[in-house]
Structure formats: structure tokens, C-alpha cells
Amino acid sequence: MFPVNAGETTYLNWSLPYASTQYITLQPGSEGIDSRVESINPTTNYGNSNGCAVGNTATNIIRTYIKFDLSTVPANAVIVDADLKLYQWGTLGTDNFTIGLYKVTSDWDESTIDWDPQPTCSVDAEITSDITWAWVATWRSWDIDTLAQAWLDGSITNYGVVLKDTDEASVNTLAYFLTSDYTVTSEHPKL
């Protein structure tokens, strides 16, 4: 508090630090870390595949794992908005379904991950996205602000996320996405 008497004026000359807003898009090339796993091929690795999928058929459950390297983001950054975006190039089946994004809680490697064993993940989805059956090419987005901030500040180890159907007992519900190994880099996963 600064006392001021009647008829007096007090001026304060303050200098406050200003942190500008910066927008960073992480969209790696083939060095990106993503892979699918399939129950029908439990020992097959798809780390170099240009496509991934999420959902189920009568004989197969497919999940997709993705991890972003955050080392180019300033360590003291405050994340205001972080959206995981995948380019969906099609669907299979006739039913609508919901994809859940789950936090992965153990380490994995793109070149060795397969169905058995898979990395562990959270029991509850961080966020979900409803998939309407249609053969449509479009970007799908999951808002992961809180999770990305926790990875950046180190309160949670960044093992990435896994996308899976929230009801894996359903059948003939698949969404197909492109990976970081796809030839068109503008359609790679991004954050």
C-alpha cells in the first residue's frame, strides 16, 4: 500500500515479465513413434506400417499406440491447448462406436511392441471420441491438455497413449488412421 494525501499523485514504474503465446505443432516424419497391435497376430510388430487402426472385427481386436517426443517444447512452458490429431482415412463395419484414449503407464518400443505383452495403461479413458460409420477422410482430434502438461512438467512419465474401442466386445467396428510412416507427411499424426 502506498499512502497518497489529498491533491497528491503517485506514479509507479513497474516492469512485468511477459510470456508470449507460442504455437508449436509436433508432426514427426518417419521417426515418429506409433504402432498398432492386433490380437489375431499377437507376436507381429507393425512399427513400420504406414497405417494403424482402432476397433474390432469378429476375429481381431486392434489398438494403436502413439508417443510424441516433447524435447523441443520449452520445459517451463504452460500448455493451454494440446490436441492429438490423427488422419482417419476410412472405417469398416456398419455400427457407430467410441474410441477411448488411455494413458500408457509403462515403457514400449515402436520396433518391438506387439499384442503379447502390451504396455500397461490406465483403466479409464482420458477422453473419448465417437466414430460414425462412414467411409470418410477426416482429421480426428482428442484434447489432451492436462496429460501433455503432466508429461512436460515430469509429474507423469511420457509413455504416450493407446487408442482402443471402449467396448471391445463389439464387432465390425474399425477406424483406419495414417501413421508417421505414411508417405504424405502432412497427414502424419500431430500434437
UniProtKB/TrEMBL annotation:
Pfam families for this protein: CBM96
Cellular compartment(s): Secreted
Gene Ontology CC: extracellular region
Keyword Cell cycle in annotation: no
Keywords: Secreted, Signal
Domain Carbohydrate-binding module family: 34-170
Major subcellular location class: secreted
NCBIfam families registered for this protein in UniProt: DNRLRE_dom (NF033679)
The name this protein goes by in its record: Carbohydrate-binding module family 96 domain-containing protein
Biological source species: marine sediment metagenome
Source lineage: unclassified sequences, metagenomes, ecological metagenomes
